[in-house]
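Per reviewer request, we include the raw input and output of the structure prediction for the construct analysed in the revised manuscript.
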Amino acid sequence: MRVWRYGDDVNTDMLFPGKYTYTCSTAEEIRPHLLEDLDAGFAGSVQPGDIILAGANFGCGSSREQPVLGLKDVGLAAVVAESFARIFYRAAINQGLVLVEAPEAVKAYENGDEVSLDVESGKIIVGGTEFPFPPLPAEILAIRDAGGLLSYARKKLAARGS
């Protein structure tokens, strides 16, 4: 797992430039532009299972789905931040992208530290030190496991109908 480290106030335009808002709508179109103005190497190097560690107010800015859709599509295991913008947080749940608020873990991270994350039990280990956080609620984990809110809702409706 690779760790991508960013600071405070990473906004949605940094995650996915606004100039592509009306020309890119699918994950395949979004992917090459992820973080291009913040970290030009991200889109070409990110691997499934990688995580982002970030400062406060991650995902602030406009309420567009493309940043979350792109991050989910590249297989990011999670974004761990000191805090998240409210609209981004909701969009991430809708897409099944795991977000974890763990400010102490983010602040403790040093380049090269090993990081492991267990969202079910609520712990992140950074450089050998364990940082607990509230485990993600079962409903959010179910949405993640279903691949997003729409898939989750469809499964629940199908289960009621049978």
